[in-house]
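QA checklist item 7 of 12: single-chain prediction sanity check.
[x] sequence parsed
[x] length recorded as 391
[x] structure emitted
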Amino acid sequence: MYFDLSDEEKEIKARAAAFVDEVCKPLEDRWAFDDYDMPAEDLFHVARKFKEYGLRGLSVPKEVGGLGLGTVAKCLVYEEIMRSHVVHGNLTTYSGFLEPSPALHQAPEWQKEKYLYPILQDEKFFHIHISEPGAGSDAANIRTTAIRDGGHFIINGTKRWAPPPVHPIVVPSYLLCYAVTSPEKGHRGISTILVDYPTPGLTIGEEYRTHATGSLGRACDYHYKDVAVPVENMLGEEGSGFHYLMDQLNRNRVAIGAGYIGKMRWAQRRAIARAKERETFGKPLADRQAIQWMIAENEIEIEQLSNMVYKAAWLLDQGRDPRSEVAMVKAVAAVYGGNVVDRAIQIHGGLGVIEQTRLIQLAGEARVGRIAEGSTEAMKMIIAKEALRRG
């Protein structure tokens, strides 16, 4: 296989490195443990700079306002920027990671003007509404309905796990709502509706806090009660929602894997530095075989995940359907990430579990990551299904 990067990929990786060194590093000493505890102006500053450095719309085609660099380039960026804990919570770059649905690339011009271009220009933000109280990794089990009534769809149901609109940086201008328009067709009856926010009948329910920080740290329920949306707000063809959903999740899952590579490298560098500086019983920790094995195991898992991520990203860029490869990435990314962080914590000893070291932050995110965007077990079901199909 050919592993060298193209000139464009090298350039975007260098740009991401400059963003970290020039924007993120100067903020590290005063960056809060949880992004939500940072002043809004600091979060908006980093988000604006992320756009100014040309890191928005990485895999969005040029003809609709993106950079057209593909998934490999997006993964290079998200691996690189995780060199700084300023973006570990991902709140400042969440809208960049969460690019608009690829279905909008072929949408009518009015939909592009309202729902695509403002997102790429960092003027607006959106949330994806997939999960429900009874439908998470099993997205085909969506029960929220969008029943046509004249010129409108009437939406009823509850969506869960989208960020609560309690902080200016995550207040959406619209919601990408996956709902059932033809209940008798099963998952082929799921469609995608663009719902403006706020809108009558849509209320915020219970808020949840996880052990992660930033974009994974807070979520809530969104209750749809007879929410009327014009029929022209359907995205793409009726019944195509499940296809769009899986396409977007595949792209998200690969980028998530790339982010974990960056976080793992960050934790490994700190583990190595600590092992070299800390002495016990007259010798540096780095001279102890038990510690060396931890460092080696970290290197192995970083390398394994890196190869898996970039293979899946390359396949996506070739227009292939790497559902099994993507599921493998998602199945192990948070597991490997948790392993590497846990070993780094162990090497740090007591310092590993204090907030200032930041490792415990990554430990919480890795645990949540084994569930978010598709659980490890659901990914294994996809892998097994594909293996059995191929024989």
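[x] summary fact logged: The radius of gyration is 21 Å.
[ ] second reviewer sign-off
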